[in-house]
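Figure 3 (text version): structure tokens given as input.
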């Protein structure tokens, strides 16, 4: 028999201070639409739909021969919809279940229960060729470009890898294809033979974005994709992400803990706490008229820089300095 430990310490009260994040300039006005979700896409405009997603993990040390297998519910009955060309931001404190939700949506992990649909097609248990196709339709950009890009591979190999996985040939040849994508994300196309460590953090993240674009995805899941970058570089990458969306017409599921960043890119916001979505709505409605106490506390919180990110940032800087790479 399997017991569920639920959550022992739900993150219900973010650190608060007098600094408000609500003063950031609005650049992307959201239009409320009459969908099934608050402020969400109209029924005919839904690209991705997740219904009642649950993810339980085995609690370490609870699976012994004579003990009951306890589980921890990281995602607890999450439903969401993302419209065509829409950006849904998932916000919440560390441990609230954002990344696990992203991984469920991208089918990097299987749900304990619930379902995921892309364009009305149930992809929850898809395998084989259909899973290959789904993996092309849904691409991920991760937080740390250095750990998500193979350090031994050239930019060309990294950017063409998703196509190779799909069994497709890069149109126009691997080099031309790579160089074209490098240009589109603001990289020097002459550097196609370099390795990730020869680029700065912002440039490396652009390689990750180019890799995601290579297969013309319909949904790009950004899991804290700009969180490890310095603020000025962060702004440039956000602008890039927005431009690419305008040009390509794909949708974003944008995971972030930093509400100032979310305000710059989201059409709609879903707030997670303790594995659940506690509030959801058009961006301006959530930022200006939060209803849930948790959202109000998040909005009043100083965007905390997590110690591990600060350490990673320092390590990256040192690495770049050692290699004398121009940022
Ligand atoms: N593979 C796993 N095995 C066990 N527990 C896990 C696993 N993945 C995540 N968890 C737990 O599930 C909870 C939610 O984690 P998740 O990473 O989804 O949260 P998050 O909101 O994205 O936080 P963060 O921003 O810190 O990544 C956390 O308590 C985490 O420790």
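Below: residues designed for each position.
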């Amino acid at each position: 028999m399997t017991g569920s430990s639920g959550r022992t310490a739900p993150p219900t009260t973010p650190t608060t201070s007098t600094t408000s994040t609500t003063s950031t300039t609005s650049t992307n006005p959201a239009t409320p639409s009459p969908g099934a979700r608050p402020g969400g896409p109209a029924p005919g405009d839904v690209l991705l739909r997740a219904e009642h997603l649950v993810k339980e993990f085995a609690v370490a040390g609870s699976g012994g021969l004579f003990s009951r297998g306890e589980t921890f519910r990281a995602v607890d009955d999450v439903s969401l919809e993302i419209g065509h060309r829409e950006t849904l931001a998932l916000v919440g404190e560390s441990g609230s279940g954002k990344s696990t939700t992203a991984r469920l949506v991208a089918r990097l992990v299987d749900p304990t229960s619930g379902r995921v649909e892309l364009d009305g097609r149930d992809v929850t248990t898809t395998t084989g060729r259909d899973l290959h196709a789904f993996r092309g339709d849904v691409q991920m950009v991760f937080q740390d470009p250095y750990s998500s890009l193979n350090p031994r591979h050239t930019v060309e190999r990294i950017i063409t890898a998703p196509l190779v996985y799909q069994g497709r040939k890069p149109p126009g040849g691997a080099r031309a294809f790579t160089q074209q994508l490098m240009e589109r994300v603001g990289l020097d196309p002459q550097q196609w033979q370099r390795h990730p460590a020869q680029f700065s953090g912002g440039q490396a993240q652009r390689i990750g974005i180019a890799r995601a674009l290579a297969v013309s995805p319909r949904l790009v899941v950004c899991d804290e994709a700009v969180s490890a970058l310095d603020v000025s570089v962060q702004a440039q990458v956000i602008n890039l992400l927005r431009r690419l969306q305008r040009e390509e017409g794909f949708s974003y599921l944008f995971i972030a803990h930093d509400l100032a960043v979310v305000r710059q890119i989201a059409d709609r916001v879903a707030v997670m706490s303790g594995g659940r979505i506690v509030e959801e709505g058009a961006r301006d409605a959530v930022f200006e008229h939060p209803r849930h106490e948790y959202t109000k506390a998040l909005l009043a919180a100083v965007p905390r820089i997590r110690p591990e990110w600060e350490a990673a940032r320092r390590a990256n800087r040192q690495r770049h300095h050692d290699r004398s790479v121009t940022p």
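Residues 185 and 206 are 6 Å apart (CA to CA).
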